[in-house]
Each structure stands twice: as structure tokens, then as C-alpha cells.
Amino acid sequence: MMAFEVWMKTVQADMEAALDAYLPKAVPERLHEAMRYAVLDGGKRVRPLLVFAAGELCGAERAVLARAAAAVEMIHAYSLVHDDMPCMDDDALRRGKPTVHVKYDEATALLVGDALQSQAFLILAEAGVLNAEQQLAMLRLLARAAGSIGMCGGQAIDLESVGKTLTLPQLEQMHKLKTGALLRASVLLGAWCGESKDDAALERYADAIGLAFQVVDDVLDATADSAVLGKTAGKDAADNKPTYVSILGLEASQALAAKLRGDAHRALEQFGEKAQRLRELADLIVQRKA
């Protein structure tokens, strides 16, 4: 098995090529330029990495994984474009460069998000390798993860919660939708591209890393600086948003992230060494510094 860093860079390079191929370039040029600006040359590609790791565990073909991973990443990118707009979080920095509405304008940013969402479902719907039943299930999974009972619903709760005090269960529910739903979908899409081994175990893994990702995000927002994060640090506190750090404190939040990492590892025990990439990604998610 190749070293994790080498594997990760290989997948990231493959994803950059796939996204470049799947993103349109023709008329209207400005919209397509802005879509490409939002997606290419940025981010750790955590969701595609999860798609590939789960897919490799389940024997999926690499070309099919690239298509599914590109679809997930476009949904993620669209959510960031909209999340940064003045009507949402009003942020000027994303992945170390100006946000789309700053680089272009608000109307273009709105259209970029809309178009990326459509493009994601288009490329997943055009996957000719999968049978119709499998393809429909994957489209349904991604739609649920992105919609009002997934990512969008979590964002709505987030906006409604500004200035309020949430209980820990309420905060967890918000982030299971806002952040966790798309990470969960990434794992399951990868598995469904091949011969899915055990959805229950993979779901337990995905639930653990989905929550851990947000806990670590909250910790980094409170402890890292903007240059390291590639986005505005300290914004949650400035906007009076409830976070794991504001509810639990910094040390307890770090301890929770470590526990969730352990939960993720335990969920994969039955797969043995075949799940090594998924374990390494759990470590990456919890131990990352940006």
C-alpha cells in the first residue's frame, strides 16, 4: 500500500483533472469562469478523498469514483459560495483568496452556486457505468444530503441560532445536517460505486467523522489565524454563533474530537487493513491544523 500522503496527492490530482473536465467553459463565459474559480485550485478535497477511500474498500472502479467525487465536491463548493455571501456569513476570504461575490459580484455568486448544484447532479446522472437502480439511489442520497433535511436545513438552523444559546444535542443536530450530511454521503457514495460491504459500519464511521470535522472547525476558528485557515478566523465568536467551544470550552471540545476519532476507528474494525485509508482520513480530519 502506497504511503498515505502519496495516495492523497494522487487522488487530489485526479480530482483536479476531473473537475476541470466536468466544469463547462463555453458561453456564458463570465459565469463559467466564476464557477471554475470557486471550485478549482483550492481546498483539501476531503469529501472526494472519502469517496475514493470508501470506494477502494468496496472495489469500485476509479473512473466511477471520480465522477461521484466530483459531484460531491461541486455541491460542497456551491454551499461555500452561498455561505460566504452577505446575506449569510458575509465573508471576504475563502481558501486563501477573495470569495466569489468579492471577486465578481453578488448576483454572479448566486448564479455560481445554483449552476454548480445543477452540474453536480448532471455529471452523476450521466454516469454510464452504473446500473439504473444504483444510479438512482446515489442521486437520491446526494439530493437528501444537500437539501432541507441535510445541508441546507442545517444552514437554516445555523442562521436561526445566531445570538441564541443551544443545548449540546441541539448543536449536534444542527451540525449533523449542515456538515455531517455531505460527509456521510461522500462515504456512502464511494461504497455504492462498488460492492458495498456494510452500510451500518460505514454509517457509524461517517457519523463520527462528520461530527468530528465540525468540532475541529470550531476549535480552529477559536485558535488559528486567518493566514493558516485560508478564511476569516474568529468569525463565529464575532457573529455570536453557538459552537462546541462556546458550549463545552476549548479543552472539552478537543477531547470530544479525539473521542469521535476513536469511534470512527472502532466502526472500521471488521474491515481490517482494507479500511486503512478511511482510518487515515479520520486522523487527518481530527489532527488537521487548517
Task: Write structural notes for this entry.
The protein is an all-alpha fold. The protein has a single domain, classed as Farnesyl Diphosphate Synthase (Orthogonal Bundle), CATH 1.10.600.10. Helix content is 71%, strand content 1%. The radius of gyration is 18 Å and the shape is globular.
Strand order of the largest sheet: 1-2
Query: Separation of termini?
Result: 27 Å
Count of DSSP helices?
A: 15
The fourth-level CATH homologous superfamily is Farnesyl Diphosphate Synthase
- Sequence of secondary-structure elements: HHHHEEHHHHHHHHHHH
The total of beta strands comes to: 2
Radius of gyration of CA atoms, rounded to a whole number: 18 Å
Give the C-level CATH assignment.
Answer: Mainly Alpha
Structural class based on helices, strands and sheet pairing: mainly alpha
Biggest β-sheet, characterized? Answer: 2 strands, antiparallel
Short description:
This protein has helices spanning 4-22, 29-39, 46-57, 62-83, 100-103, 106-125, 132-146, 151-160, 168-192, 199-223, 226-229, 235-238, 244-248, 250-267, 276-287; strands at 93-94, 97-98. By secondary structure, it is mainly α.
Q: What layout of secondary structure does this protein have?
A:
Blueprint: H1 4-22, H2 29-39, H3 46-57, H4 62-83, E1 93-94, E2 97-98, H5 100-103, H6 106-125, H7 132-146, H8 151-160, H9 168-192, H10 199-223, H11 226-229, H12 235-238, H13 244-248, H14 250-267, H15 276-287
Antiparallel strand pairs: 1-2
